[in-house]
Amino acid sequence: MARNDRHQVSTESADARTPNATRTTGRSTHRLRRTGLAAAATAGSVAAVLALLLIPLGAAHSVGIIAAGAVPAGDGQLRSVDANFSGNITFTSVSVVNNVTNLTATTYRSLVGDMSGVLLAYEWGSVQPNGSMWVRGIGTFVGTILGEDPGVVDLVWFATGIYGGALHGTIHVSQGHGGLAGIHGSGTASARFTGATTFDGSYDLALAVP
């Protein structure tokens, strides 16, 4: 649940962090490696190795990562998709500028329900001195949706909330690949911190399924 007390973000490492320190780590550019990913997912493997990417929001628009918020009519049967997840965070950089803490991290989610599989992602956001925060993320889900054959879909999201507490936002699913080819749509996402580097939550989506 959300906590209203002020949360200090530490800067040593993901597992051993020291409050009130300031550290800046260079934000390197990575590439989402899909070589062989769709084939691996189609074969039922969720052990595909993914490298994660930090892409600014504008760049995400330019390369077509962000899907439209509405599902076009006649573009597949609209289905309700609900899933729960638990995950962990590995902070990759922390910096403090004018009392605002900027974070980047890689995250891992294990999903169950209408979506069954794993979601690997890169996320970035800012935490205000009062603990309020925003976060954006991009990720690749490998698994099954509504019992379809295994495949891959890309997701992007934006959420706001309290650092160390609860966050709520919107999520968009782009065209899938492999057994999930053509699946796309959008919905809402909720998450809460369960520890310094752990969290859980849920998705409530409306997806067009060919």
User: In which order are the strands of the major sheet placed?
Assistant: 1-2-3-4-5-6-8-9
- Return the CATH architecture: Beta Barrel
Strand content: over 45%
Largest sheet: 8 strands, antiparallel, barrel
Please give a handful of descriptors for the protein shown:
about 210 residues; mainly beta; eight-stranded antiparallel beta barrel
Question: How would you portray this structure in words?
Answer:
The longest helix has 6 residues, at 37-42. An 8-stranded antiparallel barrel has the order 1-2-3-4-5-6-8-9. A hairpin with a 4-residue loop joins strand 8 and strand 9. The N and C termini lie far apart (37 Å). The protein has one domain (37-54, 76-209): SO1590-like (AOC barrel-like, Beta Barrel). Residues 1-74 have low confidence and may be disordered. The chain is mainly beta and 210 residues long. 6% of the residues lie in helices and 50% in strands. The chain has helices spanning 37-42, 57-62; strands spanning 77-97, 100-113, 115-127, 132-145, 151-162, 166-173, 177-178, 184-193, 198-209. It is elongated. It has 2 helices and 9 strands; from the N terminus they run H-H-E-E-E-E-E-E-E-E-E.
